[in-house]
Amino acid sequence: MDVDEMEEDQLQLDRNTSIPSAVLESPRMLASNAAGDNAGKKRGSEEQDTDDEFVEARRYGLRDRTKIKKAEKTPTILGQCQTEAPSRGRDMRTYGRRNSRRGKGRGKGVEGWSSWNTDIGMSEDEQIRQALEASVQSHHDLMQTTGSGARTPALPQHLDFNLQSRRVQGAPIAMVAPFASLEIVASLLQALFAAPQVRTAYLASRPIDNRGSDLSNFWKGAAPTDSSLDAPQDKLDAHMDLSRRLQTLFAFATLSQRPLCVVQDVASLAPSEVIARGADHSAPAKVASLFYEFVVDSLGKHISAFTDTILNTPNAEPVDTDALWMTDALFLSSGAAALTHPASPRLNGESGSSSSSPPKVEQHRSFLQLRHDSVNSDTYSCLRAALASDGEGALLTRTASVISMGIDHALPTAEGGPPPFTINERIHLDSLMWDRRQGVRLDAELRDLEMVRLDAIRQDLEARKRKLLGDGGRPANEVLLGAKRYFEQIATPGDGTDAIRSSSLAEAAPQIQKILDAVQADLAATDKLIAKIRAQIDAKRALVADRAKREASNPEWTQLAYDLCAVLYNELGRCVALVKQPNGSWWKIANGQAIAVDKEDVIMGRPQDPSSGVFWVVYARVENTTSTVEQDEQAREELISEAMKVGIADDNLTYESELLSLIRSDAATPSSTVAEGVPGEVEEKGVDVTMENGEAEEPKSPRTT
Questions:
Q1: Are 269 and 130 part of one and the same domain?
Q2: What are the percentages of helix, strand and coil residues in the chain, rounded to 5?
Q3: Are residues 119 and 188 in the same domain?
Q4: CA distances from residue 40 to 65, 104, 105, 578 in whole angstroms, order as listed
Q5: Based on the domain organization, do 98 and 214 belong to the same domain?
Q6: Angle, to 10 degrees, between the axis of helix 272-279 and the axis of helix 124-140?
Q7: Which of 61, 63, 569, 685 lies most in the core, judged by the most C-beta atoms within 10 Å?
Q8: What are phi and psi of 139, to 5 degrees?
Q9: Are strands 586-590 and 574-580 parallel, antiparallel or unpaired?
Q10: pLDDT reported for residue 75
């Protein structure tokens, strides 16, 4: 057979199998297909089944083949999440690794090629969706089924936690994401739990969670179950379902002695966009704002639906605790456009309420976006600047019980970056209220004529700099250097070149060098002018900020106070939460562990602090109550249903038994450290134990009432 006939046969084979040329030219695919054909020649039917099991094991990332069948029976979390993506009917092998889709013996090569054709034509959104489903499925593959039918999940793989560790006295329970891409969601839930008003609202919400009182595996991510197989399960709308799941999570976090809790029961309802942005490492503030708006919107729909239910149901009456949660003022703040002149002048300089009312046109917001720059480097200054620069200026007409703020940090410039960000422990919003200011807008540098002129000069200089740099294509510096090298190394005069041409070629490189030097000098001069203009702008902005701080320190503007209760920031690629306990102590929640920190570490503002990674802060209104912290906590515990209390108490007993068994097993197996007489080894593990006659005393509960 000659070469032409071989090429014709090859083309005919390509047409029959409909294999793209790009795939045919891939050496890896050819090698994979050849390996599959050779394997089919050597293996029998039993060996073929073994290879199929191996492919399935590679698809789930497992080493133990006995786990393959369990993984197939595991329900996917997408059914619980009620995501918008429809279920796919094609083979789940598309979620596995591509090198596992090899040929399965003789005659199986075409099937492998067709699956590759589907992947090549798949859209980017579809690939992201499948990757997310595989990520969620990988966590559910760890679920095991006990004899009673209850699921016993394993802890998330991204979590490095010592199960023998016990919660430190006074520490909050650490909320952990089911997988790493939802760490921001778990941290945001931790921050919401730290806000007293939010915790009270969800504990008081109705209807209560009646899915079951068995919470033995809730801390690992399993939903509450009921021991009765015939127990009815109410099917609620998504917004009501989220409220009752948050109610269970907050109740468990209030009464449980567990050191951590996987928030899979709540995170499984997260919108698909939140999961996608968390997986592709979007800006943390964006991910947090998406999930926060989802929580706020769900609560609003829940309140509206439950109100309609009360009005349309005979003999349905509201209860006293409904006022704790049936209000949109929990999360929503409102604002209106400010005025150039007061709506009505103050009389005798009094700061009392005005006879004029705020305008009817108001905007509601669930959170505020702040920007940290070279002038505004603390929470209050950034908030004031954000309101002053909102259009022609805006003022707050009503503030929510809990105010969340996203933080955006300005990028460093040639002159340096912004100063460290300082988080105010307490802020007063009186000076930002529409009624207190009579609608008069805040001072803003953009309304100063001198500031407008300086800003216009700065923009012109930056445009000139971009032209000198060659923003239209290749950098001007690179073009000039290339031309210089050409005339120096390539376009040299030859033997037959006339004198005039030789002189021109000899002078070209020095002339280009002069142009290059002039461009560099112009760039340097432009940078100096830009720096000078920016310094003048920053000086004027600093004057405005100083006037605002002096105004805010006036005693008449210190009635509406908000206290910091949570801070979220990035540290080495991981999301960290700083939360405040009711007793005023601060704790750092990272990797499922709670570590006590000082207040200075929370406020930050120092060069060594990770203030540039802060992306979310939560403030709660200071309530003027006469009750003590212990009384407030007792009142919140009374909102929890008795069935939930019993379930959590049973889980606490189980946890104490687990710790006791671990202590006894350690005592029965003497270690080298204990034999050497090193004191405090057991205490360092977070477990208090006393030994008498070879027995361990059961540890006391770390929780105090």
A1: no
A2: 50, 15, 35
A3: no
A4: 21, 6, 3, 58
A5: no
A6: 90
A7: 569
A8: -75, -40
A9: antiparallel
A10: 42
- Output the six-digit token pair for 165: 């560790």
Cβ atoms of 356 and 326 closer than 8 Å: no
Q: Tokens for 146? A: 């006990």
Beta strands 260-262 and 174-176, pairing class:
parallel
Q: Tell whether 21 and 77 lie within a shared domain.
A: yes
Give yes or no: residues 257 and 178 share one domain: yes
Is 455 contained in some domain? no
Q: Which stretches of 101-184 are assigned E, i.e. beta strand?
A: 144-145, 151-152, 174-176
Same domain, 98 and 213: no
- 404/446 Cα distance (integer angstroms): 26
Q: For residue 269, is it within any domain?
A: yes
Tell me whether residue 330 is in a domain: no
Structural Rg of the chain based on CA atoms: 33
Residue entry with tokens 């509960």:
701
Whole-prediction pTM value?
0.68
- Tell me what pLDDT residue 24 has: 38
Write out the E strands in 153-270: 174-176, 260-262
Q: Which tokens belong to 342? A: 């007061």
Give the whole-angstrom CA distance, residue 457 versus residue 451. 10
- Tell me the one-letter amino acid at 653: L
Q: How far is CA 266 from the centre of its chain?
A: 15
Q: What is the DSSP string of 477-539?
A: HHHHHHHHHIIIIIS---TT--HHHHHHHHHHHHHHHHHHHHHHHHHHHHHHHHHHHHHHHHH
Give the C-alpha separation, 262 to 217, whole Å.
10
pLDDT at 447: 61
pLDDT in the model for residue 158: 64
Q: How far apart are CA 332 and CA 400, in angstroms?
A: 5
- At position 634, the amino acid (one-letter code) is Q
Give the span between the Cα atoms of 333 and 396, in whole angstroms.
8
Give the pLDDT score at 173.
Answer: 96
The pair of three-digit structure tokens given for residue 111, joined into one six-digit string: 């099937």
Same domain, 179 and 316: yes
Instruction: Name the stretches of the chain with pLDDT < 70.
Output: 1-155, 157-165, 227-236, 344-360, 414, 445-448, 472-473, 494-497, 666-705
**Residue 645 class from Cβ within 10 Å (0-12 exposed, 13-18 middle, 19+ buried)?**
middle
What's the confidence (pLDDT) of residue 203?
Answer: 96
Cβ-based neighbour number of residue 82 at 10 Å: 13
- Boundaries of domain holding 137: 12-144
Q: How many domains does the chain have?
A: 2
Q: Please give the single-letter amino acid code of residue 430.
A: D
**Residue 283 lies inside a defined structural domain of this protein:** yes
d(CA 216, CA 653): 10
The span from the first CA to the last CA of the chain, in angstroms, equals 92
**What is the spatial order of strands in the sheet that 394-398 belongs to?**
363-365, 333-337, 394-398
Closest alpha carbon to 276 in 429, 118, 125, 405 = 125
Helix (H) or strand (E) holding 334: strand 333-337
Contact by Cβ (8 Å): 433, 396: yes
